[in-house]
Write a structure and sequence with these properties.
The protein is 37% helix and 17% strand. The chain is an alpha/beta fold. The strands form two sheets. It has an eight-stranded mixed β-sheet with strand order 1-2-3-4-5-6-8-7. A hairpin with a 2-residue loop joins β7 and β8. The chain is elongated, with a radius of gyration of 41 Å.
Length: 499
C-alpha cells in the first residue's frame, strides 16, 4: 500500500523537474518492468529509435502454469539523423490505462523535428535514453513519458493545431522566424526559446499574484473578521503598468466588457482626469472629442428612432429635458435651460387655468428669456387639400400651437416680476421674449414645402422648427466633429464659417 502512494522519482530528470510532470503521466510499476529503447539503423548516420514494451510476467497474471502468452508492443518514438542534424520525435501516450496507449499524443501534430540540432548518433538503447536527456529545455527528457513538450509549453502545440492541416512541427536551429509550408509549421529556435521564457515569466507572475491573493484573503477573513478595527481590510496593491500590459497586449481587450469593468474604467478615468490632462493633454483631448462623437451618435440614433414612433408630447419633453443640448440647436446661439413645465401665470380666481410652458430658457450672454413649446413629429402642419393655386393652408393644430405660444409669452411678460420673485431668479430679462415651437416634420411634397416655408417665415414672434430639422443639425455637427476625433483635419471652403 505504501509503495502505491509513494511518489516515484524520475531517474533521468533533475529534481526540480518533478513538478513539471503532467497529470496522469505513467508510473511503469504496475506489474511491468520499464520499457526499453531499441535501435535500428535506417542508413549510415541515421537510426530509428523504438519504444519497446516489456511483456508482463505470466506468474503475475494469476496463471501458475505460465501458459498465458503476451505480445510485447513497440512503436517508433524517435528518428535520429545525425548526418543531416535532424532529430525527429514522435510523441506518444505512455499511460498504460489510457485507451490510446502507445498512440499519437497530440490531436494533429504527429512529430516534432529539431532541425540543425547537433548530437551524437546513439548506438544503444542506453545511449538513446541519454539522447532524450540532452534535449533542449522545454522538452520532456524521460522517454518513458512519450516525448514532446512539457505541459507548461503545450499552448504552443494547441495554438498550432488551430490549423488542422498542420501535422508536423519543425524547430529550426539554423534560421529564425515563423512560417507554414504545407503541413509543416516551422518555428525558429530563437522564437521558441523566447516564447518558452515568456511562458515561464507569466507562470511565475501568476504564482506570485496567487500567493498575494491567498494571503490577503486569509488576513481579511481571519483577522479582519475577528477585529476589523484593529485589522482593517487590505486590498491587493496596484502593480505599475498593469493596465498598460492588458490594453497594449498583442490581442488587446477583446469581447464585451462586463458592467463591472465598464464602471471601473469610467471611475478610474474620472479620478485621474486632472492628471491625465496635465501629463497627456493631446491624448486626453482626443479622447474627449471621441467621447463627444460617440455620445452624439447615440443621441442621433435615439432621436431618429423616436421620430419613427408614435410618441406622446410627454415622451418628447422628457427627451429634451435629458438632452437640453438639442434644444439649443433651435436657437443658433448659446442658451441655458432654467426649468421645464414652467408656470407663466394666467391662474383664475378658482385656481385653475394656469398657463404652462414646456421649457424656460435664457441666453447665456444677455439673460434674455425664451419659451419653448414641444409638440410631436406627427403633428399636422398643413391641410391635406390645397386652398388655391396649389397653396396649402396651415393646419388647425399648427395654428393652435402658435396661439398657445403667443399666449404663454403674453402671460410670462405680464407676470415676470412675480415669477422672478417666487422662483428666486434674478438673472432673467424680458427684453424680447422669443418663442420656439418644435412641431411636426418637413413636408415631403414640394408644393407643401413651399406653403410651409411661406407661412413660417411670415411669422414674426414665433419660430417654428421641425423635429427632422433638429436631427439634421445634429448630424451636421457630427460630420464636423468626427474627422477631428479621428485625428484627421476636415477641409472645406466653409471651414472658417461658424455653424
Amino acid at each position: 500500500m505504501d509503495g502505491d502512494l509513494k511518489l516515484k522519482r524520475n531517474p533521468f530528470e533533475a529534481e526540480d523537474d518533478d513538478e513539471n510532470l503532467e497529470v496522469g503521466e505513467p508510473e511503469h510499476s504496475r506489474g511491468m518492468d520499464d520499457p526499453t529503447l531499441e535501435i535500428e539503423e535506417e542508413h549510415p548516420g541515421c537510426v530509428n529509435i523504438y519504444f519497446q514494451e516489456q511483456p508482463p510476467d505470466a506468474s503475475l497474471l494469476g496463471n501458475s502454469s505460465g501458459s498465458v502468452t503476451t505480445t510485447a508492443r513497440r512503436v517508433e518514438i524517435c528518428r535520429a539523423d545525425a548526418a543531416n542534424s535532424d532529430l525527429t520525435i514522435y510523441p506518444i501516450l505512455t499511460w498504460i490505462d489510457n485507451p490510446s496507449y502507445l498512440k499519437q499524443k497530440y490531436l494533429s501534430i504527429k512529430s516534432i523535428t529539431l532541425s540543425g540540432y547537433h548530437f551524437e548518433l546513439p548506438e544503444s538503447g542506453y545511449a538513446a535514453a541519454e539522447l532524450f536527456l540532452s534535449l533542449p529545455t522545454g522538452f520532456i527528457k524521460d522517454y518513458r513519458y512519450g516525448g514532446g513538450l512539457k505541459k507548461e509549453y503545450l499552448s504552443i502545440i494547441h495554438a498550432i493545431e488551430e490549423d488542422p492541416n498542420i501535422q508536423h512541427l519543425v524547430i529550426d536551429f539554423r534560421n529564425s522566424g515563423v512560417k507554414i509550408e504545407g503541413d509543416l509549421f516551422i518555428l525558429g529556435f530563437d522564437e521558441f526559446d523566447k516564447l518558452r521564457k515568456a511562458f515561464n515569466r507569466t507562470t511565475a507572475e501568476y504564482r506570485r499574484n496567487a500567493l498575494t491573493d491567498k494571503r490577503l484573503l486569509a488576513y481579511n477573513m481571519l483577522l479582519g473578521s475577528a477585529n476589523s478595527t484593529k485589522f482593517p481590510p487590505r486590498i491587493r496593491p496596484y502593480r505599475k503598468d498593469t493596465i498598460y500590459k492588458i490594453v497594449n497586449s498583442s490581442s488587446g481587450l477583446s469581447g464585451d466588457l462586463s458592467k463591472a469593468d465598464q464602471g471601473a474604467i469610467l471611475n478610474l478615468a474620472r479620478k485621474n482626469k486632472s492628471k491625465l490632462m496635465r501629463e497627456k493633454p493631446k491624448e486626453f483631448l482626443q479622447l474627449h472629442d471621441e467621447i463627444e462623437v460617440v455620445a452624439l451618435k447615440e443621441l442621433i440614433r435615439i432621436m431618429r428612432e423616436m421620430i419613427g414612433k408614435q410618441l406622446t408630447e410627454a415622451a418628447w419633453q422628457a427627451f429634451f429635458k435629458k438632452n437640453p443640448f438639442v434644444l439649443s440647436m433651435a436657437f443658433g446661439y448659446p442658451m441655458i435651460m432654467i426649468s421645464d413645465q414652467v408656470s407663466v401665470g394666467g391662474t383664475k380666481i378658482s385656481g385653475g387655468g394656469g398657463k404652462i410652458a414646456d421649457f424656460l430658457i435664457k441666453n447665456s450672454g444677455t439673460d434674455n428669456a425664451a419659451l419653448v413649446e414641444i409638440k410631436t413629429p406627427t403633428t399636422k402642419l398643413l391641410t391635406s387639400s390645397s386652398y388655391r393655386g396649389g397653396i396649402h393652408a396651415p393646419a388647425k393644430e399648427l395654428v393652435g400651437a402658435l396661439n398657445q405660444c403667443l399666449d404663454q409669452r403674453f402671460m410670462f411678460q405680464k407676470h415676470i416680476a412675480n415669477i422672478k420673485d417666487d422662483s428666486d431668479i434674478s438673472a432673467l430679462e424680458t427684453y424680447g421674449v422669443k418663442c420656439i415651437l418644435i412641431v411636426g416634420t418637413v413636408p415631403t411634397e414640394k408644393v407643401q414645402r413651399k406653403s410651409f416655408e411661406l407661412f413660417r417665415h411670415s411669422l414674426k414672434d414665433v419660430e417654428v422648427v421641425t423635429f427632422d430639422e433638429l436631427l439634421a443639425k445634429l448630424e451636421l455637427i457630427l460630420d464636423f466633429l468626427a474627422p477631428a476625433a479621428s485625428g484627421k483635419a476636415k477641409t472645406s471652403e466653409t471651414d472658417d464659417v461658424p455653424f
